[in-house]
Amino acid sequence: MKYLLEVCLVSIILPVSGMVPVAAQSTYDPTIPVLRKGISVELPRTTSGVSVPEADKEDALVLTIKCDGSAYLGTNAISIAELPERLNDALSKRSEQTLFLKADAHAPYASLISVIDSLHTAGIDNVTLLTAQPGAPIPGTLLPPKGLAMRIIAPRAVNRSTELY
After folding, report:
1. For residue 84, how many other CB atoms are within 10 A of its CB?
2. Could you give the 3-state DSSP secondary structure of residue 68?
3. CB neighbourhood size of 41 (10 A)
4. What is the CATH number of domain 37-134+144-151?
């Protein structure tokens, strides 16, 4: 009952005190961080990740692999088989050709390899693997995502007669 009373008092006091609700903002302010919808995963930690604020943009193309091996393009579940076609469609409509891969630290390696193989099949070569920030951030501090840029290349023909072993 006490909690209900406190909530009621706060809901009455805030409008009376003159505080403007957040929804009343009519202009876009780039300094105010925007929370993106997404699939939550435990990202692997790395010490060599670089800041990739582009991954936080609303139109960033994010592919998520969960710990059970399931895949999501944005927030929509997707099968690995349909991934090349869907990614080609998505990338054909945008100028930024980077895909951000957000894989759970406990995702099966085989799932990750299947996804990377599908990316190769789709002709996607600019991939950034998103990683966790080392250390604990100060509570309430928003940090840009970090990641490792990766390039998927086609295998080169190997002339075994000239290879040295």
Report:
1. 17
2. coil
3. 19
4. 3.30.420.270
Q: What average pLDDT score do residues 96-102 get? A: 88
Residue located via tokens 């903002």: 25
Integer Cα distance of 86 and 90 in angstroms: 6
pLDDT above 70 covers what percent of the chain?
68
Q: Report the pLDDT value the prediction gives residue 109, as an integer from 0 to 100.
A: 92
How far apart CA 82 and CA 78 sit, in angstroms, is 7
In whole angstroms, how large is the CA radius of gyration of the chain? 22
The rounded distance, in Å, linking the Cα atoms of 36 and 62 is 11
Give the orientation angle of helix 83-92 with respect to helix 109-121, to 10 degrees: 50
Nearest-CA neighbor of 103 among 150, 35, 155?
Answer: 150
Please report the sign of the dihedral spanned by the C-alpha atoms of residue 31, residue 36, residue 41, residue 46.
negative
Query: How do the domains of the chain map onto residue ranges?
Result: 37-134+144-151
Q: Quick one: tokens of 116?
A: 């990377």
Give 117's DSSP letter: H
